[in-house]
Amino acid sequence: MTTPVFHLICHTHWDREWYLPRAAFHVRLVQLLDELVTRLAGGAEGVFLLDGQTVLVEDYLRTRPDLEAPLRFLVREGRLQVGPWYVLPDELIPSGESLVRNLQLGRADAARLGRRLDVLYSPDAFGHPACLPALAAGFGLFAIVAWRGVGSPDAVLGGKDLGRWRGSTGQAVHLFRLPISGYEVGAALAGPADRVASAWNEIRRSLVALAATRHVAVFIGADHHAAPTDFGALREWVVAAEGKGTVRFSRLDEFCAAAAAEARDLVEIGGELRTASGDPWILQGVHGTRAPAKRRNALLELWLERVAEPLAALAGTHGGRDRRPLLEQAWRTLVQCHFHDTIGGCTSDAVAAAAAARWDAVEAYGREIASAAWHELVGHDPDAAREVAVDHLQPTLLLWNPAARARGGVIVADVTFFRQSVLVGPPGGRTPRVGEGVRPFSLRTALGHPVALQILDRRIGQERLEAARHYPAQAMVDVVRVALRVPTLPGLGFGALVPGPPAETSAPEAVEVHARSLVNRFVVVTLDSSGALTLFDRRTGERWLDLLRLESGGDAGDTYTYCPPARDRPTRSRGPVRVRRLAAGPLVAALEARWTMRVPRGGRVEVRHTISLHADSPVVRCILDVANQATNHRLRARLPTGIRTIAIAGAAFGSERRRPVTASPGDSPNETPVRTAPAHRFVAVAQADRGLALLAPGFFEYEYTPRGDLLFTVLRAVGQLSRDDLPTRPGHAGWPTLTPGAQCLGPTRVELALAPLRERDLSRGDLLTALWEHAFTPIRGYWVRDAIAGGLTLPPVDVTLEGGGLVLSSVAPAADGMVLRCYNATDRPTSGAWRFGEAVRGARRTRLDGEAAVPLVLEEGGRRVRFTAAAGEIVTVAVQ
């Protein structure tokens, strides 16, 4: 190698919240930036990397707005590097759209500040998804800097620090792998001159040995470390210790660009990066830690992506308000929970509680945005409804299809009937208005045709109707849960049903209850004496036994790492179970089983398992309500399939094909490779006509065993942030802190679904997602009890995605229309199109960040826009 060029990259890695709450680290951040901004703006030498996340600038300027001008100056001049992320996320737990929103927020923040770091900096994530190169390219980022999960330097990238990473979408970017000691490699240099001289030789030797070119990055910093006290002196000390090569301060993207320009014959790697080589730790035990919080996050992602954003986009294109600022606030609040320690659950209980409060706020944002968009789309005015007589109201069940394809079928919705008004405030002689409550009824289409209806449940509840210019109208109501067979709705399209007199209807197909079995024309599912399920596929003759049987084993680990206790003896649910019929058909049949399960080393788990089956679907819906009253254990649900092949697991913008992992404590000296893996929405195994898919609303942890069992992690109950006595990972991964909240005591709900399938179904790419949509993004019913008779108008929406293997990802509002995103879930190129019921004025294909727009040809009078998608490609189309 020629004389090296050493690029000094001074930085801090800033865990916004971790073993201490955000407020504690915020105080330290303000101190760090007060000093840094003052020195650099005053003319001191140096460049500083602010950890690749703009949220730190947001936090700082909220406290020190008086220093915004000098801070912006430093960002514009490239001396303070910000972005490209909003927060440094865990990249495997958030959804693909959440990762996109994270980068969109970081891009917007950096643009306001004047300049962005154009490298996807990921110094501490616990592994990386295969879509990351596509995300980088989609935001104009030419390189990725990563550490955990890439693998040992001796085993990847030809033993060098630079290579090419080709993700599942086929796009490739430069990948710079941090050394084994990571972003702390040069931390010892930020000290007295004598320490620099003694540390430099070893640092230099290790970095030069890995360097693919003469350009060598020397990261100087560590967790929550302030900037060097004297940048100029630091450089001089390194120059004196080096004596040969060039030494200079650099931006991270300057180094990456210089190294990429000189690199030759780089090794290319592909797919996801989850290699646990033992050095550095990958710490993927976090995928099961604080599992209830991860499930709540997944439900909120689903609500924003597939309900609030699409409804806001449709309302905006039909003359409604621009709700993008509110959606941005909702996304900022949610993405703040995706910081890698926060969503990983490897934090103090105070941090977990703060994240839970943010999730509360996201839920409120999402529901209010969706409700307001609903009202605008159909022309419902709650204020006007207060001014009309009660007999001029026509309660209406609005229907909306959140899928970009036509569909109908059996759905479940809640409708309410007025019983009595609830007076708030001093009575003052007022008397509450009294109504009849529920009476026998039907639900009918606009033409007066009744739809098939089944009453599932009835209870008395409270309902509050809000209005902009009136106090809320609180009422006691009869809440009636109904199953109904709705007519086919177009993609993203609307419908409506109104109550009418009782009517006899017939169902073309039905589901029945036979003792402990639910039966329709597709499947038979039976509850056994342990609370597990037997599933029989009537189409293929295949049968599965003992599905979703709960089992508990000890967990002697911490929030980072699972560790089985010595001589662990897992226990399995044995019953007896108490079974109750909840619904008998013909549209929905449901059973409930309750039992108590004893766990190892004392303690118990109370279980309520509800299974339901719709008349028109092979998907078995399951709800596990678990009340955990035991500590230091791992509770999982096992699905023996007998299929010994590979598992297809959902991932951000695609899927992963994974084989079983066999590893035991001690197999690796520093960290035992985990047998579990992350999944989004589904994991499936199939061979010939025998196959089974496990579906969930969003992220979950699973294990696929060599004998063909799938195991779903319900929870990991652990009580310490970090331990140093684990055979699966010797040494502390964080600061020792008690975390009784991570024991996950109390109730938690798990929503799952099972679907039998065939091996050939998996090659379609979009079938698993279609099954998932059927279970978790069904046609939604929105009951408007105070609708004015004749006052609602359904918008003529039809937005349909055409093309084999294409999967809808998002529909979001834009300044002049909406942004539609899909991806090709197959390993082959495909042609696709967006078809609209109403003509659009224009369409552009863009990158993920909205840039590099290419006009698309409008066909059929503006009602169809065609495109092509390479294997695995993410396609973003903006329409006006």
Total helix count? 15
| Mean pLDDT level | 95
Strand content: 25-35%
| Percentage of residues assigned to helices | 10-25%
- Provide the CATH architecture of the largest domain: Alpha-Beta Barrel
Number of domains: 4
Largest sheet: 13 strands, antiparallel
Supply the CATH class of the largest domain: Alpha Beta
Write down how many β-strands occur, each being a DSSP E stretch of 2 or more residues.
Answer: 46
The fourth-level CATH homologous superfamily of the largest domain is Glycoside hydrolase 38, N terminal domain
**Oligomerization state of this entry?**
single chain
Radius of gyration: 29 Å
What coarse outline follows from CA principal-axis ratios? globular
- The unreliable regions are none
- CATH fold type of the largest domain: 7-stranded beta/alpha barrel
Summing up helix and strand content along with how strands pair, one would put the structural category as alpha+beta
* Cα end-to-end separation: 54 Å
List the helices and strands and how they pair.
Blueprint: E1 5-11, H1 22-41, E2 48-49, H2 55-63, H3 68-76, E3 80-81, H4 96-113, E4 120-122, H5 132-138, E5 143-146, E6 162-166, E7 172-177, H6 193-210, E8 215-220, H7 231-242, E9 246-249, H8 252-262, E10 268-270, H9 291-317, H10 324-335, H11 340-344, H12 349-378, H13 382-386, E11 396-400, E12 407-421, E13 442-444, E14 453-467, E15 470-489, E16 494-500, E17 512-514, E18 517-519, E19 523-527, E20 533-537, E21 543-547, E22 549-554, E23 571-572, E24 578-584, E25 588-598, E26 604-614, E27 620-628, E28 633-640, E29 647-651, E30 654-658, E31 676-687, E32 690-704, E33 709-717, E34 725-726, E35 729-730, E36 746-756, H14 759-762, H15 767-776, E37 780-784, E38 799-802, E39 806-814, E40 817-824, E41 830-836, E42 843-846, E43 854-855, E44 858-859, E45 864-869, E46 874-879
Parallel strand pairs: 1-2, 1-8, 1-9, 2-3, 4-5, 5-7, 6-10
Antiparallel strand pairs: 6-7, 11-16, 11-37, 12-15, 13-16, 14-15, 17-18, 18-19, 19-20, 20-21, 22-23, 22-28, 24-25, 25-26, 26-27, 27-36, 28-33, 29-30, 29-31, 31-32, 32-33, 32-36, 34-35, 38-41, 39-40, 40-46, 41-45, 42-43, 42-46, 44-45
Helix pairs in contact: 1-2, 1-3, 4-10, 6-7, 9-10, 9-12, 10-12
